[in-house]
């Protein structure tokens, strides 16, 4: 049985490798000097799903301008790319669709391009993408109905943001520098009992009579999930 | 001697070497065969994982964790759900006792709203619960064909019990919405386990009078590629050949009969061209009639602006006949009795203006290359055959063609379809989610003869539809009744009497919901009679000013007569009363100056109401809720009081939070609100 597992694992590994190697038929027509993100980092999607926007990276030549024909390869543990490698277009950019993995949490996306003299130039820092599990998806749904009206400064045709009408301005949920200083229980308190109850602005209403405790907890989970810089997970940490 | 001769041959003193070897081999074989079962057990996957877990636990959290762990096969058995899951034999750390284990199989199970031991694993994740090897539990094998469900479709599992919308499963909700909104359920039957039959919600127009509305050329171009006319069209692409499209268009025009609108003198006596239409005035009329609440138009940047409740109007001028459009704007129901479009009371000048405005929205390229030979009997007959075969009548009403029954496969149990019954394409992964995704994405890739057309869906919509379909399982229909949470169903409420006829004519229920029936675009009116004051209601219907400055979708101005307004107001104020709104609820003497002063304090300081509402246009900027500057003229004091106490009880789903106010606080706030009687200086700001 052990052997069978090993065989299955080996076969999986092989297919995994095969999947990666089969597409390695692109030969770079040019070699860049740097690689950087254009857009697509720090997005969130439900586990196992494609991010709402593609990830776009750009390879620049020694002159600092976009370089066409350079090979870009995307890597990331648990992440799927379509395509996983491609040559840059005329503006030096490559666009790929990114599908985050099975488990909720952060995923690192690395893009690299080969150097003329061998070796690789790797994008730094790696792009951070976020997979939302059940709880943070629920939190996002609650956020999209209630919180977003004031806590998001972006307006859409369906919903004009109230962010700029408030003073002091609300904190946007991705603001890790602010939210990471609060404990879960503090955030649950503010949401349940309103700003005034904890010595904050009365403009934040109490939602304890409207949302279920599980929903408030889910909103906190969502804030933690999209926090930038990331919220340090509690408990002891171990290397893999 | 003879004794010696008769005696049997002497007994051998010992077995031969050969026999010994044979005996040894047989015993060994027996021993080995007896050892297979224990060895299998000893070398099992789960024992291997449990041992590594023990090692990890001893290493990272020495103490009780490892001491209390007993190696052995584990199982969750829930007879009433048919669950026999041994997953926890390897996934031993689902409760997270070993902190920080991030790799499988030892990851902690994420937070979900159910207890793991009450539902087991396969109910949500699929796979083979009873299996005890990694391969059999997770993947498709010869004996089992139920692999794990990929994470992106996990919402579907919630949908086995939760038959309605659920806050935490946006993908499932969207998929179910699309089954109705894309009209999938016109052809496919989708029954839910509680007997609910999903109904279409896409409102395909009847084609019985089509020749009045448009030309054969437009019909041809449309059925060849609906999205070329309107990018947002839900009508799928049937990938018709030029000849088929020509024949179908010939038949559709030929089967058309005159509508009542053509015979209606009042609709036809207006001049075709009224006063030369002033383009600016016409655009203003289009805007102030809030056509954009339902209809979208593509702007110069290529973005759709407007609602998706009615058809997109970007190229309407290339489609419709001017006379038809004029009659339609005057009274749509005369052409199509079941339309969702309201009957605006436009005068002839306004109709001419709107007609001119809409006809100018043209795309001359659309029909530039359509040159059809005149229809002959043969072409029409062939068209009728095609229309019948392609199932056009499943969605559209067509003269002489009966709607087909059981036209497409029943999808009520599609989430449990056996893989052995499925014909996969070469190179396709043999699993159900991938098959459904491919089918929804491009049905004709499974064979050119297949009837299902190609729908205009984004990748995310395909995943959502697949999720909704995967929820339709055998297991779902066999679950105990107490576990099934039915979807909210629409009632068949219709308002009665003269007011009811008027409300039907204005299609109030297209946008407003009343007593469980109607749309969700505008506020629910079930308790409106207890909510508003008569003078406000009458002036609002005469000239609807928006209460919410930030809203795009607004109440249209129907140009009602004073008599009509009175009929409607009388009805709304009497029929839509809520219980418990009598004068005892609130003592009017309590609403005095002192209370108002306290209420103002509460409004601005304690509850920060001005962050969402505007009580005074000079100081407040809140954009989330309706402006309250003249709420004293609009709402009844009792409604304000009860609303403040529990908004969700009066209008479920409202954004206004329940602030858990004490009785005297709600009373004081009400006293303040009734003093807000600013003159409505065009509330739309």
Topology:
The complex is a heterodimer of chains A (240) and B (685).
Chain A: H1 2-22, E1 34-39, E2 44-46, E3 55-60, E4 71-75, E5 80-82, E6 85-87, E7 93-99, E8 105-114, E9 120-122, E10 127-132, H2 134-151, H3 176-179, H4 184-193, H5 213-226
Parallel strand pairs in A: 2-10
Antiparallel strand pairs in A: 1-3, 3-7, 4-6, 4-8, 5-7, 8-9, 8-10
Helix pairs in contact in A: 2-5, 4-5
Chain B: H1 2-6, H2 17-42, H3 45-60, H4 64-67, E1 76-78, E2 83-85, H5 116-119, H6 122-125, H7 134-138, H8 155-158, H9 170-181, H10 184-187, H11 210-213, H12 216-224, H13 226-229, H14 242-255, H15 260-263, H16 265-268, H17 279-288, E3 296-298, E4 304-306, H18 322-330, H19 348-359, H20 377-390, H21 432-441, H22 459-470, H23 474-477, H24 497-505, H25 508-511, E5 513-514, E6 517-518, H26 528-531, H27 534-542, H28 562-575, H29 593-606, H30 631-634, H31 637-645, H32 647-650, H33 663-674
Antiparallel strand pairs in B: 1-2, 3-4, 5-6
Description:
In chain A, a hairpin with a 5-residue loop joins β8 and β9. Chain A has helices at 2-22, 134-151, 176-179, 184-193, 213-226; strands at 34-39, 44-46, 55-60, 71-75, 80-82, 85-87, 93-99, 105-114, 120-122, 127-132. With 240 residues, chain A is an alpha+beta fold. In chain A, the strands form two sheets. In chain A, strands 2, 4, 6, 8, 9 and 10 form a six-stranded mixed beta sheet that branches. In chain A, strands 1-3-7-5 form a four-stranded antiparallel beta sheet, with no helix packed on it. Mean pLDDT of chain A is 86; it is low at 6-23 and 235-240. Helices cover 28% and strands 22% of the residues of chain A. The relative contact order of chain A is 0.12. Chain B is 40% helix and 2% strand. The radius of gyration of chain B is 36 Å and the shape is flat. In chain B, β1 (76-78) and β2 (83-85) form a beta hairpin. The longest helix of chain B has 26 residues, at 17-42. In chain B, the strands form three sheets. Chain B has a two-stranded antiparallel ribbon with strand order 1-2. In chain B, strands 3-4 form a two-stranded antiparallel sheet. In chain B, α17 packs across α19 (348-359). The interface between A and B is large, with 57 and 53 residues.
């Amino acid at each position: 049985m052990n052997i069978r597992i090993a065989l299955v694992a080996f076969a999986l590994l092989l297919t995994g490798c095969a999947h990666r190697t089969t597409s390695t038929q692109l030969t770079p027509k040019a070699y860049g000097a740097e690689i950087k993100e254009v857009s697509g980092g720090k997005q969130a999607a439900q586990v196992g799903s494609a991010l709402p926007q593609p990830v776009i990276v750009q390879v620049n030549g020694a002159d600092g301008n976009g370089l066409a024909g350079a090979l870009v390869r995307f890597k990331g543990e648990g992440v799927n790319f379509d395509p996983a490698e491609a040559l840059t277009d005329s503006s030096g950019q490559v666009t790929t669709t990114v599908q985050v993995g099975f488990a909720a949490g952060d995923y690192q996306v690395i893009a690299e391009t080969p150097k003329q003299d061998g070796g690789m130039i790797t994008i730094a820092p790696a792009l951070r993408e976020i997979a939302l599990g059940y709880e943070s998806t629920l939190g996002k749904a609650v956020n999209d109905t209630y919180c977003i009206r004031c806590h998001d400064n972006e307006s859409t045709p369906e919903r004009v943001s109230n962010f700029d009408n408030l003073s002091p301005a609300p904190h946007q949920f991705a603001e890790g520098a602010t939210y990471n200083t609060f404990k879960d229980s503090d955030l649950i308190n503010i949401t349940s009992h309103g700003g005034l109850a904890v010595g904050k602005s009365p403009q934040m209403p109490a939602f304890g009579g409207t949302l279920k405790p599980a929903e408030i907890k889910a909103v906190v989970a969502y804030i933690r999930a999209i926090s930038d810089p990331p919220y340090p997970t509690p408990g002891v940490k171990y290397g893999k | 001697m003879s004794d010696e001769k008769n005696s049997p041959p002497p007994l051998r003193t010992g077995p031969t070497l050969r026999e010994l070897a044979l005996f040894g081999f047989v015993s060994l074989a027996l021993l080995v065969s007896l050892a297979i079962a224990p060895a299998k057990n000893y070398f099992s996957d789960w024992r291997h994982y449990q041992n590594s877990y023990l090692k990890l636990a001893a290493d990272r959290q020495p103490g009780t964790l490892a001491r209390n762990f007993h190696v052995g096969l584990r199982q969750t058995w829930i007879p009433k759900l048919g669950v026999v899951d041994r997953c926890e034999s390897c996934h031993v750390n689902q409760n997270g006792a070993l902190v920080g284990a991030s790799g499988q199989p030892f990851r902690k199970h994420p937070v979900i709203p159910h207890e793991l031991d009450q539902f087991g694993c396969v109910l949500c994740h699929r796979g083979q619960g009873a299996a005890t090897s990694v391969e059999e539990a997770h993947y498709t094998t010869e004996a089992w064909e139920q692999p794990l469900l990929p994470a992106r479709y996990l919402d579907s599992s919630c949908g086995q019990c939760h038959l309605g919308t659920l806050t935490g499963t946006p993908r499932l909700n969207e998929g179910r919405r699309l089954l109705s909104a894309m009209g999938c359920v016109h052809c496919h039957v989708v029954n839910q386990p509680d007997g609910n039959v999903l109904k279409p919600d896409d409102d395909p127009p009847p084609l019985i009078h089509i020749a009045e509305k448009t030309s054969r050329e437009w019909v041809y171009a449309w059925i060849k590629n609906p999205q070329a006319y309107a990018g947002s069209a839900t009508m799928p692409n049937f990938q018709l050949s030029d000849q088929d499209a020509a024949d179908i268009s010939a038949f559709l025009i030929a089967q058309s009969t005159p509508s009542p609108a053509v015979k209606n003198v009042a609709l036809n006596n207006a001049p075709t061209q009224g006063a030369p239409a002033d383009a600016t005035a016409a655009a203003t009329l289009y805007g102030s009639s809030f056509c954009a609440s339902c209809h979208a138009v593509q702007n110069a940047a290529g973005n759709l602006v407007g609602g998706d409740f009615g058809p997109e109007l970007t190229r309407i001028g290339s489609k419709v006949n001017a006379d038809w459009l004029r009659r339609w704007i005057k009274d749509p129901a005369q052409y199509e009795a079941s339309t969702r479009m309201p009957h605006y009371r436009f005068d002839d000048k306004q109709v001419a203006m709107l007609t001119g405005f809409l006809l100018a929205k043209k795309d001359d390229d659309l029909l530039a290359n359509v040159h059809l030979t005149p229809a002959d009997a043969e072409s029409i007959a062939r068209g009728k055959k095609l229309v019948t075969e392609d199932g056009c009548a499943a969605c559209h009403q067509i003269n002489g063609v009966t709607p087909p029954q059981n036209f497409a496969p029943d999808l009520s149990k599609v989430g449990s379809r056996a893989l052995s019954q499925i014909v996969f394409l070469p190179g396709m992964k043999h699993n159900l989610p991938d098959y459904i995704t491919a089918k929804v994405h491009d049905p004709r890739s499974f064979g050119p003869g297949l009837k299902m057309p190609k729908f205009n869906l984004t990748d995310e919509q395909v995943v959502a539809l697949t999720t909704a379909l995967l929820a339709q399982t055998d297991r779902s229909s066999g679950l105990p009744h107490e576990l099934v949470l039915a979807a909210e169903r629409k009632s068949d409420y219709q308002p009665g009497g003269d007011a009811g006829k008027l409300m039907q004519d204005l299609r109030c229920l297209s946008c407003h919901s009343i007593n469980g029936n109607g749309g969700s675009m505008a506020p629910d009116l079930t308790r409106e009679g207890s909510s508003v004051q008569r003078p406000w209601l009458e002036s609002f219907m005469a000239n609807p000013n928006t209460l919410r400055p930030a809203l795009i979708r607004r109440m249209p101005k129907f140009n009602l007569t004073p008599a009509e307004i009175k009929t409607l107001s009388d009805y709304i104020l009497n029929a839509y009363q809520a219980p418990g709104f009598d004068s005892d609820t609130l003592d009017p003497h309590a609403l005095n100056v002192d209370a108002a002063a306290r209420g103002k304090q509460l409004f601005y300081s304690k509850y920060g109401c001005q962050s969402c509402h505007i009580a005074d246009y000079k100081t407040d900027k809140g954009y989330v809720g309706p402006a309250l500057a003249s709420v004293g003229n609009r709402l009844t004091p009792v409604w304000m009081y009860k609303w403040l106490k529990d908004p969700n009880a009066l209008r479920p789903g409202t954004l206004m939070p329940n602030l858990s106010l004490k009785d005297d606080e709600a009373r004081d706030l009400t006293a303040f609100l009734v003093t807000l009687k600013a003159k409505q200086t065009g509330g739309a700001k």
